[in-house]
TrEMBL record:
Binding-site residues for a divalent metal cation, renumbered to this chain: 34, 36, 67, 176
One cellular-component annotation, GO: cytoplasm
Pfam families, per the entry: Ribul_P_3_epim
CDD domains: RPE
Taxonomic source organism: Fannyhessea vaginae DSM 15829
The name this protein goes by in its record: Ribulose-phosphate 3-epimerase
Catalytic activity: D-ribulose 5-phosphate = D-xylulose 5-phosphate
InterPro entries, sorted: Aldolase_TIM (IPR013785), Ribul_P_3_epim (IPR026019), Ribul_P_3_epim-like (IPR000056), RibuloseP-bd_barrel (IPR011060)
Similarity comment text for this entry: Belongs to the ribulose-phosphate 3-epimerase family.
Biological processes, Gene Ontology terms: pentose catabolic process; pentose-phosphate shunt
């Protein structure tokens, strides 16, 4: 099966919101923009919503993945579609009618991703793995930027990969939380190709260099996995 290219997706949550336009220009070498929507219920924190997504889409050419950390994705999805989202990441834990929501996303010709919190088992993916374009393995408990990477994530990524092989499918495997140039190698070696990074990009002065450091570390990990 074809391997997916390594993609780096800076998380806007760590950007300076007073200088959003400059912040977006500074990450132009990335592949995706990761847009964290938090509702204060599904996760304790609040972030931003549709008006900000509209503004972002008007000033950046990067495709935007909307990570919906909300209790009611079935209600809010349409708003984000309208605001220009390019793909959607929906939490397994937040959605009873996951297949219906995946169908809605696909009917709008957008990519559908299912996210697993650290405590959600990989086997829950068994009945949807053939329907999704991407699986997000959370490497922190969602809700805040700047948390430490949970080390057991690499094992979990490998389990997702094994499940995909069992089903003969090849969705993108994404990882989000505490990703830096050091562990980018490990997660890519385990099978992740889409890496979300907030602090390790926006806390650096030279964002292009930070993105490049993540990319080259992940590429080395992916190469090592191929060799093994
Ligand atoms: C956490 C968010 C992440 C977060 C990542 O709930 O989903 O996208 O912004 O930030 P870092 O890379 O700082 O952990
Ligand atoms: Zn996120």
């Amino acid at each position: 099966m074809d391997t997916h290219p390594i993609c780096i997706a800076p998380s806007m949550l760590s950007a300076n919101f007073m200088k959003l336009s400059d912040e977006l220009s500074s990450i132009a070498t990335a592949d995706y923009l990761h847009f964290d929507v938090m509702d204060g219920h599904f996760v304790p924190n609040l972030s931003f919503g549709c008006p900000i997504l509209r503004a972002v889409k008007a000033s950046s050419d990067l495709p935007v993945d909307v990570h919906l950390m909300v209790d009611n994705p079935e209600t809010t999805l349409e708003w984000y579609l309208d605001a220009g989202a390019d793909s959607f990441t929906i939490h397994m834990e937040a959605q009873t009618h996951l297949k219906r929501l995946i169908d809605t996303i696909h009917s709008a010709h957008k990519r559908a991703c299912v996210a697993l919190n650290p405590a959600t088992a990989v086997m829950n993916l068994d009945d949807v793995i053939e329907d999704v374009d991407m699986v997000l393995v959370m490497s922190v408990n969602p809700g805040f930027g700047g948390q430490s990477f949970i080390e057991s994530t690499c094992k979990k990524i490998a389990k997702v990969k094994a499940l995909c092989d069992e089903h003969g499918v090849n969705p993108v495997i994404e990882v989000d939380g505490g990703i830096n140039a050091h562990n980018a190698y490990d997660v890519a070696r385990a099978g992740a190709t889409m890496l979300v990074a907030g602090s390790s990009v926006f806390n650096e002065h030279d964002r292009s260099a930070a993105i490049e450091a993540l990319r080259s570390s992940a590429q080395r990990g992916a190469l090592e996995a191929k060799r093994a």
